[in-house]
## 1
Amino acid sequence: MSVAPAVGARWPRSRAHRAVGAPGATRPAAAPGPGLTDLGSAELGPVRRFLVRRPGVVDAGVVLVFTGWAVFTGVGADSMYGLGAHLGAQQVQRMQVASLALTAAGALALTRRRGRPALVAAVVGVLGVLALATTGATSGFELGLALALYALAARERPVVTWVVTGATVVALLAAARVLPLPLTVNALVLGADPAQAGGLEAVERRARGDALFSVVWAQTAVPVLVLALLAVAVGTSVRNRRMHVVRILEAADALGREQEQRLRLAQAGERARIAREMHDIVAHSVSVMIALGHGASVALDHAPERSRAALEDLVATGRSALGDMRRILGVLHEDGTAPVPSPAAPPAGDPHSAAPAAPMQPQPGGPDLDALLEGFRRAGLPVRATVSDRVGREGPDPLEELDANLGLAVYRIIQESLTNALRHAGGTAVVEVRVLVGDEHVEVVVTDAGARPGDGPGPGTGPGSQRGLVGLRERAAAFGGTLEAGPHGTGWRVRARLARNGAGT
């Protein structure tokens, strides 16, 4: 039996509800983990924030509420219902002592409900059964079990919660229906008179003979069942909210990692793009400048005019390379247009003085192919170029149809291929450059005949790093195309096929 419903019969029911309203007070006891506490502290009111940050205060409050209710219902039952007149003073005393001892054990168990909620709920359930067996009532353990089940539902999986809840509730309800003392005490509370019934045993037999769901049994069953289900419902709601916040945090963390990874990939791609552009510019310009310088030194004695022209071309190539590098480095500035300090100007009147730093200009593309080829020719590389469209019409016009990115890719592929020919096939008879602009693809083929016997590689060159070919393949792949490079007859051939609808990076 629980004395709470009987008390509610004499007191207003709202007061009985206020007395057992402790489950709501234990909500902070299911304090979330550090991450959840940190997230929600700013959104909580001052009282809840205080309780969440000080779980010891909540634990003390839970123990005090349970202890007060258990002492009130267990020890005060005699004064409210006059059980001593029927059971005897000694029996009532033993019941009160047992109630106090079990209350102390229950209070001690509830202090551990955070760390071992399932075990604590089971222990409180066993203590409740012992209370029924020794005092004839739940002696406040209907509330103690609700507090333990709330902590369990707020922390454990639902399957664990419902298994423990079912086992403890069934044990209490079965004890209240089977044990003789609960049946006798409940019948006395409901007004049974042992003198008229023929003694306490007759009262107990009559209560046992009632229907399974009798009013006598309901004195214990209703509060135990209602409080247990309410505690599990509230605890499950708290757990669901906690899991929802955890999922939000995990999603935010995953999004942050994804954004960071995207940023790293973008930075790596940008570094690779800049490195590719710098390699193409430096490798081409330095190779041409070395060839021009070598030619100027050879022609210095017997053809000074040719030597002077080669030196002028060398200066022009260096100036062009400097401008190209300035354009590439310009993208490293935040706004993309911040000026880069120009090199110190030579003295006035110097015929080779550099022009003032020009503003950032577009990257080279297909229309700049003629100037590129002419620069290689001046460096001593015999180049023959053919540019045609899908109907076979020759001329530079087809290259103007290409967008800027695709035009730059075509330009760089030809530039790198001719640079390699200048470095490794010095003295070659001819270098063929063929560009075919189709509806869906652009095909670039650069073929050299190889160095003439005895000429060897170009002047001032060493073994290649293969970065140029790697960069060319990356450019082709960026447009959904392919690039093949390898020996062809006595020379070397580079063949690239780029899709016109490729994204390009």
## 2
Amino acid sequence: MESAKVLFGLLLVVCIGFLRGANGQLHGDLRSCPANDVKCNNTDVCIVPSVRCDGRNDCGDWEDERDCPTPPPESGCGSPSVQRGMSDIIHSTNFPYDNYTDQATCKWDIFVPTGYHVKVEFLPIFDIEDDVTGQCRRDAVYIYDTDLNHLVGQYCGSNIPPPMGLSSNHAMVTFKSDYSHTGKGFGLHWFAVVPTATTPSPTLSTVPPTPASTCNGVIRLDGKSGLIASPGYSLTTSAHYPPSANCGWQIIGPPASKIVLHFEDFMLENSPNCSMDSLSIYDGFDETASLLGTLCGKYRPGDVVSSDRQLFIRFFSDGGVEGRGFHITWTTTSTLTTSAAVTHTTPVPGEGCDGHPRLLTSSSGVVTSPGYDGTSSYLGLQACQWLITVPQGEVIDIKFTDFEMEWARDCDYDFVAIYDDDFSKAKEMLCGQRLPLDFTSTSHTVLVKFTSDAEVGGVGFNLTYTSHPPRRACTSAEYTCKNGRCIPYDLVCNGLWNCFDGDDELICPNNPQCGRPVIQPHLDSHRVVGGREGVEGSWPWQVSVRLSGKHLCGGTLIDPYWVLCAAHCFQSNWRTTEWSVMVGQQELMTSSPHQQLLNVSKIITRHDYDDVTSANDVALIKLAQPTKVGRYVNVACLAPVTLPPGEVCYITGFGETLSTCCAGKLKQAAVPLISTNKCNLPDWYDGQVLDTMVCAGYENGGSDACGGDSGGPLACEIGGHWVVYGITSWGISCAGAKNPGVYIQVANYLKWIQETIAKHS
């Protein structure tokens, strides 16, 4: 089926090329886009012609901004003069941390889609020079309702103007300042709202309310509850919904009620922007109402709640791949009394996601994506904003406890953006499954934005924030204690508690018990391809890192609670609940009385890990329970040492052997270190090995780490202790000539390892 889809895609490209003119312009497609709209060639998104060359990524791949004659005009306050879309923020220069400039002239033309009206709402910081007349003749912000061609109001002083709903889809905002006396300025959130005017109704066919799974036009469902299913839906058989389906359901509840949709099952073909198969939910009578979300993929969405007694659902499928479909139960709840039946639901949109930024002024709190429960996926087409403001002189710490979103290299689709000192440029753009690092602001105000496109991409996020007076950042020559105190790094591991709780003595090279196996390994010249089976218990720090119960990577036990591993092991899945660690094991397929299976509580990687160059390919795994150290389980040493080329070390792991020996068993191989200069020769790795890496192996091949060994140790014996010298990272082939294994040199990351373990212990 996949090959058929690829062929279909190639045919589609040929057709698109036919429709695209010689100048590469977007093409119209009356079959799938509203009248007068045009379709983007690569993403199938429908846009109005006026948004071409407006400086915004309306197509999703910047196609509408290519071959433009001139860049869009600038407002005079640092943002584009033309503002288009459903929601955004504009503001005076330097807002909210410094005063705006003298003699400023800024202008914004705001356009929302046809069928919507503009509404504006000022942010809670408003500080513009006043004058004694009260008529704002010096500095002022002006709001114009373009459809009525008149000035709605001009505002100055410190009183926040009220929200304003305008009468068309076009508004104009200007800001002017004179030559003296400035203030913090203003921030203004503009957004699209559905006007109250009524619209023509579609032709309806009325059928019994349960079950509703056919596709004869629009099905009207009345009452207090019912079921909706995709055509042919069955949970017990392999039946799929048909291709080219076009189904509509209009739900009308009793007066003074809201409609609650609960997804019992959901599986539609996944695609960018849900352009193949999709389920769209509208907050009203028909498809002219506000779109609550467009869904596809395998994630079961959370509950959806209407704002009134009407809800419209539209299901489309293309001519290709089909899924199992969906099964929805719908109920109604009275708006006159609070019903316990829906206390588990979160209205969509919720606070901060209804076109109004949510203001948070407490010293600590929690922010989550709409409907977050840790298991269900968030809805598409969300635009949420939270403005965290604490007393001046304090800063804000943000810590994520859960994070899962659709991934893109530049976070173009779904993302969390964090703004600090400049609301026009995000300090952090976050997406994917990787738990973000903690963030500390430089000021007392932080803006958090959450945006999702039409395709559902994960369970969302959960973050906590706290405020405190600013602390001095430690220098590179200092060690950061768990409580934030800075001490000279040369005091770490000196046997004294220089940090308040002694976390500077947690991970130390001078640990007398580390790297000393009770059962000694057999060290010989056997050249873990071309190696030999290790003696059981002789490498007691070797662990098996498992995803969904299956071995995926190796790792090194460096503390009863901590395992050292490689960041690339977790690129496909960052959810700790699906990972586990096995220690004390000799053979993957055979249980041992010495083995211990441990759950994972945290996965921490270097924030600067690069999956292209493998730079900083380091990860730490915190175990939910401590390992029981003994004869068959022990920790390896860490040490800030650099060894010369030719020094023989050992690699261990459960990985691929290319049929040389002992599949699925713990293996060892002796490998000499190779200089980085030699490893970077043109016929070797041609400059790909970084200074923070080390090569180990043989010029003619024969011994190497291989698939399944990633993340495991390159261990060297120094002074009677085995030290983790490297982390297995990458290579071109297993045991190939002039393609030795490449390892992350642990000594370069010792301080990061120590500080990270201290912070999370």
## 3
Amino acid sequence: MTDANATEGDASGADGAASGRAALRRIALGETGFERATVWSAVGLALSYVAFDATAAVGVGAPATTGVLAAVAAVGAVAFAATGGGALPTALLAYGPFAGTLLRGLGPTPYAVPGGLGGPPLSAVTAPLALAAAAAVAVGFAAAVVGFLVGRIRE
């Protein structure tokens, strides 16, 4: 082995490590920005929160509404990940719908001001939001893996 070969071997090893870090960065952060995930997370929170009012008006119960909202959030997260969203943006995207759903399902009386006079304690809001964060991380990372695999199959 000559010195030139040793140098070339070291360079390819360094390139391999750099490409490995780039792949991890792409999986974690994705190719699409956090901006889309943030906007759709906020929209998902608002829509899922008021969906309970709309579905109750037509006679659909809260458990059915919760199931449909969770399924739509999971499918949306997989689709976002399949189009280049990474694990962290996908978790952020899933957080909004889960937060809105869990706030209505487990949180205080809708439209009450927590911590205010006669209102529920602040923990009535923080507990569902913490649970939504845990669910969003779990679903977001699982959706990122599934979406990444779907994206690889499509190529």
## 4
Amino acid sequence: MPKLIAILNIIAWAGFWAFGYIALTGVPADGPHVTIALVLAALGGAVGIVAWLWLVRHSEATGYARRSNQVAREHHRTPEGQA
């Protein structure tokens, strides 16, 4: 499964850059073409970010990468009797 997500990540970012370039360099008179390229670029960017975040979580969970240096959630809560 991680390999499929990694492939999806690469394809999504490639789509983001390719369609983003088309959307930025397209002639504004070609309204539908530029709009479709913009939507596809946004979709590729969104899928790329979600896939990348999934890969980061998976690599931290399996021990391939170190966990991020964050404070655990239990330390942010106040004890029951105190406000």
